[in-house]
Write a structure and sequence with these properties.
heterotrimer, A mainly alpha, B mainly alpha, C alpha/beta, A: mainly alpha, 3-methyladenine DNA Glycosylase II, Chain A, domain 3, Alpha-Beta Plaits, two-stranded antiparallel ribbon, 37% helix, C: alpha/beta, Fumarate Reductase Iron-sulfur Protein, Chain B, domain 2, six-stranded mixed β-sheet, 17 strands, 17% strand, globular
Amino acid sequence: MTQLLAAILSFSAFALLFGVVLAIASRVFKIEGNPMADNIETLLPQTQCGQCGFPGCKPYAAAVASGEAEVNQCVPGGERTMLQIAGLMGVEPKNIEEEPTAPMIAFVREDECIGCTLCIKACPVDAIIGAPKQYHTIITDHCTGCTLCVEPCPVDCIDMLIKPELLEHWSWPLPDTARAQLAIERKGQHAPHAT
Amino acid sequence: MTEFAVILLSAVLVNNYVLTKFLGICPFLGVSSKVETAVGMSFAVMFVMTLASTASWLVQKYILIPLDLLYLQTIFFILIIASLVQFIEMMIHKTSPILYQGLGIFLPLITTNCAVLGVAILNVQQENTFITSALYGFGAAIGFALVLILFAGLRERIEHAPIPEAFRGSPISLITAGMMSLAFLGFSGLVKI
Amino acid sequence: MLHTLLRSIAERPGIFSGGIEPEMLKITAGSPIATPPIAPIYIVPIKQHIGEVCTPIVSVGEHVFRGQKIARSQGYVSVPVHAPTSGTVVKIEDHAIPHPSGMGLPSIFIEPDGEDSHDESLEAICDYRGRDPGELRERVRVCGIAGLGGAVFPTFIKLLKDQRNPIETVIINGIECEPYLTNDHRLMLEKPEAIATGLDIIMHMVGAKKAIVAIEDNKADAAEAIRSALNSLPDMEHVEVRLLPTRYPQGSEKQLVQVLTGKEIPARKLPMHIGVLCQNVGTTFAISDAIIRGRPLTERIITVSGDALPRPGNVRARLGTPIRFILAQHGLEHFEDTHLLHGGPMMGERLKNPDIPVVKSTNGLLAMHSETMMKAHKVEQPCIRCGHCGVACPVSLVPNLLADQCRNDQFEKAESYNLFDCIECGACSYVCPSNIPLVHYFRYGKGQLAQITRAKAFADISKERSEARGTRIEREAAARAAKRKTVRTKHMPKPVDEKSSEEKSDISADPKGDGL
């Protein structure tokens, strides 16, 4: 009987001790906010285009961090961003349904613009200049190509143009060899079952 | 002094827990796909293993033996290990969320890492002193870290190598692990215990 | 590998780690520099240096003189462009330049009048020793001089007398380690006096006490010529002409400095950070021409060679001459089964068509039989980890690993293995028994990293703008709410009359006004 009591008491005391230590530790290491959301947000292209179904890059990052959104919903980010987010979250990469298009910029046909300011309100990065009843124009250096300004325009005077390639921004393609091609092919099928 | 060096060397290389005793294979294969996560895991295991081996020695000596409760050894040791793992989990979550995310399920699974319990039990079986058991735990952890990081480095390179389709993924990892184990067998002539 | 390691640890003059000894094929070493006739048209791209692009300052139909400035520099890292001969500007439009992309730049087309009369607005400065270095530096900038070794970095930037990084040693680079090329060799043989004067000018400009003229031992005659030219100038006892064993890529700035001084230039640093200034012999000649004769850079020496060329040789080509015209002078008019290279065989780039003009970076033009090129570029085989590339690498990188990372899009990892220290000399590709185009992979990786950095910077700006917009909208909403509140409290006792609702609609219409 004494031995039974000794066993129960010593074990309970021991467990209680660790319980107290862990309770204190959980206070000390308390986490505010969701640090993963910030880490994911830095990976996103910040076009604020809403193609992921969320009203901007920050909400999407928060949704991914809390597990509400998939990692493959960022269309402008493409495969690269998807792989980075998947790597960060420690989940299996997923295929992206939509093919990434060439980078675009919006362009206002100024002679048709009626100066309604609707596109100015739609622009998520304030890259459209104009005032009521004045022609509007787009700061091409800041345009993210999100297409959010196209829809509100009542006279359809905004075109999406392919961003012109600059000589300084040109970069070498992969060598045109069979092995390089193999690497590209493997990348396509390799990604989903990487461990 | 020589004794300490021999213990450390034997725990790290000769009786390597992963490649010679085949304990702790789960995290060895689970978190070795990236060097960064492998390093994080190594530090977590180092922390848990060293503290667990010293704490279990103390429990054995001052609670279990005096109270004649040796039949409760496993449950006591697991309690220590589980608490330590909980502690380090909270710490990692706070200090490095990315590492926390990367380790995923394998972090709480250190609790069931047989290498940790193995070290604790072997320590008391071998009737080590306090210092030597701490050293033994630490050496075993260093050995675990060494092979885990080496293996992660190998796997990182293998990942993009043109391996035949059938061998890609787990098969080539197991083959690599086997070859590493063979290589570590070479250390068996180094120290005689 | 150990060999490389030991050599890089033993930091001593006379050697750089790695390197190769390719067959030199300097078949044009004995051909004197020829002067071709005036071409029917000159195509002058508005940017021929590393840095910012220039703005044309002439209009179509305008008559220009040789040496007249036709495009103004913009920004600091930029030098102007000058007319290569006298004539009329016929058009200004995009034209292909020697660039691997095959893309074009706005170019000024000049139809020569045959007079070749000079623009004489720049005076000759013969008493340069008595002039202020700043004034001479401005002259070097105005004359459009950029590094003629191939990097075309604006020269005036390097010629700064900087108190923080005083220049002790000036190095004149006459190494010319690329196979086939002999333009620097011929220039040293034929114009040693001008090069010696140029060196004197540079030493005066940066206040250097010492100078070394470095020449490889396959050009001993050039070293002799330079030596005797130096002896004829006063106060040249601190100038040394040094013959170095032939080795590629010894002509690369960092390797040459290491060989001559025993000091290694740290990563992402310049020679000036260790008190050294490096100038190519062609640039030195151009500096002397600009100061002593007041002539802007309108021509350069190029080697025209290759096994598909009937009459190889060295020519003094005006910048803007179509390459087709120069090759025709050397007997090549049909380009079937011919590969054209801009530059040497190691670092040169393939030209897509012969109608591209000569620019400041053109040090050689090679016409090779397609068969020879096919032999040099065999099918890429798997890496066998022989390690030859690591031994050959002059900057001690691990090329096979880097290529693997670049091929598999692990760019950040490649960067951490110092991808950006690669000088793209091609030694690794040359020695690779599996014919892996290693340098091509590195160029791909560097380009992708640059794009990633650009995308990141753009994302940061977009994020900032989007956040600024968010706070602006919030502020406006708050202001509106506050205003509404004051209106409401003011009119609270009375029933809402017409005036207040009018006011309200005014307020809600208000933010439209400041759309930005």
